[in-house]
Amino acid sequence: MRKFDLRFKQRVVRDYLAGKGGYKILAAKYDIANSLVRSWVAAYQHHGTAGLVRQRGRYTTEFKLEVLHRRAAEDLSYRELAAIYNIGNPHSITIWQQQYERGEICSSQCISPLDNSMSTKKKTSPRLPESEQADGLLRENQRLRAEVAYLKKVNALVLAKKLAQRKGRR
Length: 170
Description:
This protein has helices at 6-17, 23-30, 34-47, 61-74, 78-85, 91-101, 130-169. By secondary structure, it is an all-alpha fold. It folds into 3 domains: 1-54; 57-124, no CATH class; 125-170. Helix 1 (6-17) crosses helix 3 (34-47), helix 2 (23-30) crosses helix 3 (34-47) and helix 4 (61-74) crosses helix 6 (91-101).
């Protein structure tokens, strides 16, 4: 893995901000991945030159939970969160999310759990009692079966009509 010095990153970011090209053009010009250009620009916009300095180290549980809570509250992508919090690798946040869902990350003050729908953009309704949930699933299943049966019938009628037209032409 190549490492880039601060001056090189600053030059790439300056070129982008000066309008000398987009992510792909500058990536091709400097022979780097366009995702690097994108992440350097975002880090620079959030933190200035300090955002371009390579960060290494461990993150506290409270910090991880703060990042995950913000993701849930503001529906941000991992890349956006990495830029905001100056996290070198956005994939780290994905790992934290998975660890949280398995119950491996929780602080001593962890009272209110994160929303389970964090990894998806769609918000789910609150949990129903099992009997109501089962009834709802059965009704949905019946509705979907009826819909499929209807579509099959329409398809069969259309095919029959086409066959009849073909026979009539002969």
